[in-house]
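User: Just a sanity check before I run the rest of the batch. Below are the structure tokens for the first item. I only need the designed sequence back.
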């Protein structure tokens, strides 16, 4: 029974950290009530690479245009 309770507490803590990471730094807001957590989340958000619009486009920036679904490899 104790292992189930400990596991659930860990799961809830990880979910709260994921929520803080996803919700606050991307809106430019600070985490309310926990400045240490806000600082850590901001550092983590700045360190993680971010995909921008066009990063996954296969023909972006190249002169030879190959349709995405043609099956042709470069």
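Assistant: Here's the designed sequence for the first item:
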């Amino acid at each position: 029974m104790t292992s189930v309770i400990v596991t659930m507490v860990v799961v809830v803590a990880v979910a709260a950290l994921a929520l803080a990471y996803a919700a606050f730094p991307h809106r430019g807001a600070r985490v309310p009530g926990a400045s240490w957590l806000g600082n850590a989340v901001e550092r983590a958000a700045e360190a993680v690479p971010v995909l921008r619009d066009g990063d996954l486009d296969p023909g972006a920036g190249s002169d030879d245009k190959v349709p995405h679904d043609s099956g042709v490899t470069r």
